[in-house]
Amino acid sequence: MTKKTVQQSEFDELRERSLLRHVINTSTEGDADSVMNAMDTFWDTYFNGEGTKEWRLRGNTLDSAIKQKSPKTAMEIGAYCGYTAVRMGRLMPAGSKLISIEIDPLYAAIATKVRARGWNIFFSSRCAFNNSLFLFFAVPLLRRWWSTPA
Ligand SMILES: C[S@@+](CC[C@H](N)C(=O)[O-])C[C@H]1O[C@@H](n2cnc3c(N)ncnc32)[C@H](O)[C@@H]1O
């Protein structure tokens, strides 16, 4: 029997766990802005302010694109901990659908919790396994999701 060794990256998972705990402790349920603020504060502190300016610029650009296009459906590949899903979701029209796919089961679980706190329109977090399997499964799944009323 092969003995599975612990990968160094598994120790890093505590970071995302701490992020989730911070979001739950400091944000208000159902308030997307407070969830985003909690995540911004966590990363600002973690990275000691490094990259904060660029991150704000990216966030504002994303907000402008969503406001301008006002999409009824959107798909994000790579949810990580759900920040951009909450960010986009809060600006999408009522009844719209955002499908956010995450390959890592831990991140998918965290993103689902974060989404539940910050936005309760529609969000689905799935593990895509790998790129080819993702392409194989995504099209039929998306067809089904998009034809289901929100
Ligand atoms: C840069 S992060 C996404 C950040 C996130 N959109 C945000 O800003 O809050 C990229 C994410 O994509 C995920 N990922 C990479 N390949 C993927 C795939 N084939 N299917 C789904 N997720 C994938 C990674 O696990 C990682 O969490």
Description of the molecule:
With 150 residues, the chain is mainly α. The chain is built from seven helices and three strands, in the order H-H-H-H-E-H-E-H-E-H. The protein has helices at 8-11, 13-26, 32-46, 52-69, 83-89, 105-118, 131-146; strands at 73-77, 97-101, 123-126. The longest helix has 18 residues, at 52-69. It is globular. The N and C termini lie far apart (47 Å). The model is unreliable at 121-137 (pLDDT under 50). The structure holds S-adenosylmethionine. Residues 76-80, 83-84, 101-104, 107, 128, 131, 134 line the site of S-adenosylmethionine.
Per-chain topology:
Elements: H1 8-11, H2 13-26, H3 32-46, H4 52-69, E1 73-77, H5 83-89, E2 97-101, H6 105-118, E3 123-126, H7 131-146
Parallel strand pairs: 1-2, 2-3
Helix pairs in contact: 2-3, 2-6, 3-6
Bound molecules: S-adenosylmethionine.
